[in-house]
Amino acid sequence: MDEKTTIKPYVIGLDLGGTNSVFGIVDSRGDIKATTAIKTQGFDKVEDYVNACVEALEVIIEQVGGIDNIKAMGIGAPNGNYYNGTIEFAPNLSWGHNGVVPLAQLFQDRLGVPVALTNDANAAAIGEMIYGVARGMKNFIVITLGTGVGSGIVINGQLVYGCDGFAGELGHVIMERENGRSCGCGRKGCLEAYCSATGVARSAREFLLKSDQPSLLREMNPDDITSLDVSIAAGKGDELAKEVFEFTGEMLGAACADFAAFSSPEAFIFFGGLVKAGDLIMDPIKRSYEEKVLPIFKGKAKFLISGLDGASAAVLGASAIGWEI
Amino acid sequence: MDEKTTIKPYVIGLDLGGTNSVFGIVDSRGDIKATTAIKTQGFDKVEDYVNACVEALEVIIEQVGGIDNIKAMGIGAPNGNYYNGTIEFAPNLSWGHNGVVPLAQLFQDRLGVPVALTNDANAAAIGEMIYGVARGMKNFIVITLGTGVGSGIVINGQLVYGCDGFAGELGHVIMERENGRSCGCGRKGCLEAYCSATGVARSAREFLLKSDQPSLLREMNPDDITSLDVSIAAGKGDELAKEVFEFTGEMLGAACADFAAFSSPEAFIFFGGLVKAGDLIMDPIKRSYEEKVLPIFKGKAKFLISGLDGASAAVLGASAIGWEI
């Protein structure tokens, strides 16, 4: 290796979302030194998207003393494949929905630093290991509760990518084998269909329909109910809304009990929008887990909320991939 | 390290079962050079058991040229904990049922070679990696179908032990969340309650009760039916017996689909008594898996039968742990 021995103090993180692409330049303690963003959509070709990114990046790279201070770049992206640095058939990206886009290579060619890419849940897991609550842990699972349910699994200190780069799809284990809810993946009964933000809103609508129990949520058009509304109502003591979180947490706890049988992690770390509900969701998760898990695992796993700052968590996670290169 | 540079060509394997303790001295290609066995039970103290083992071992160690030719010893044992070399609260061992027995250390002190210990399914997984069908694979799952359902999981070329040494209990993921069968672990609906040898016999009894379908199995006392009887009847074309295997394989395929969402293995490798049913069990496993797995994983995983010779598979697996030290 011909690598220079001068220490390069920063990495670039790119949180590539369906709407915005958010960049941060981050030091080894997880302090964001500079940040910028562009819209993800509106580009027909990936090259145009990368051009717009690099143009925005040049400004903040200059702010930290130039590209010589940058060790690497990490990208957290939907359908990201770590092994070959590609985004594969990402349905929500105008320039990436119908093929395999070698995004890491394109950035690497333009910036002249190593670039690695993975999906956002894996990025969150590495972020927790490097800057967050999983520092020092070798075996843990990050579960992201957002629009979908994602996961990043760390075993023996390494992220689990599997034989094809797509391991860690714990949102798609089957929780209801009969009459399960339809899931976006085309199957039925997936964890994601119940425990994502949209799953929680759907549970609320189902609970409202199947009883006459009074609820603040009855004042809304059912179709407009979001997980945030359920969370606010539960926070005000609304019984039906609390039952929705109880139901959601109970299923997540049952799922984690199965995950323990797989990898016996030291901790389950929850990340994403739904986690803002705090104890409303965490208490039933823990209770259900301890009740359902195989006796040998009882009382061993910690249940933690992400230690990454909410607003910049995704960028921090993406940047963390850069330190792993 | 002061280790001698002379090559030590053999390892000792001990397959510690509830009835017999079988020893083999094995070379790096998996050829068993010498073998012996003693009864596992009949000892009040573990020291007496180890004394009897060493006495039997001395004879075969001499046959391969003495202890200087032995690199290490590997033990596959129920409730074996790799991290500290102990057997913990093994219900079926007269000298090990009520405490934590430091078995690896006891053998190490007597033999003067390094000794490692794990449970039998983990031993089988390392055996497949070193001598069997998983040579060259970095990500695979061994599922043992015997009296129970066990598993050994390899990710990134390493066995998964988890934070406490007890990971890989895939026989105890929950397959039926409502009205599931009672499992030996004290819970309900575990994979093991359906897909172990005893689970298959139980399915046969259930199938016989719930229909009037003619079957060769009706000639037996229902309580005497074993998985082997079901296998023999199915082999003769018995429709009810074939349905039992169909049911069993379908559930195993569904379970493997969930396991793929976890670690996306290159292969699932089946090991143990039930595997002797061959295509009767393997065909429905594959069919059910491909039907149920998340689209991104379809067609990727291989479904293999253990490559270790049946009679000596457990000893080979145990010995393989020795090469990993």
Describe the structure.
2 copies of one chain form a homodimer. By secondary structure, the first copy, chain A, is of the alpha/beta class. Chain A is 36% helix and 20% strand. The first copy, chain A, contains 9 helices and 13 strands. The first copy, chain A, has helices spanning 46-63, 103-111, 120-130, 191-195, 197-210, 227-235, 239-263, 279-292, 313-324, and strands at residues 10-16, 20-26, 32-39, 70-76, 80-81, 86-88, 100-101, 115-118, 140-145, 149-155, 158-159, 267-271, 302-305. In chain A, the strands form 3 sheets. The first copy, chain A, has a 5-stranded mixed beta sheet with strand order 3-2-1-4-8, sandwiched between helices. A 5-stranded mixed beta sheet of chain A has the order 11-10-9-12-13, with helices on both faces. In chain A, a hairpin with a 5-residue loop joins strand 2 (20-26) and strand 3. The radius of gyration of chain A is 20 Å and the shape is globular.
The first-to-last residue Cα distance of chain A is 14 Å
User: How many β-strands of chain A, per DSSP?
Assistant: 13
Helicity range of chain A: 25-40%
SSE ordering of chain A? EEEHEEEEHEHEEEHHHHEHEH
Shape of chain A: globular
β-sheet strand percentage of chain A: 15-25%
What does the radius of gyration of chain A come to?
Answer: 20 Å
- Mean pLDDT of chain A comes to 93
**Oligomer designation:** homodimer
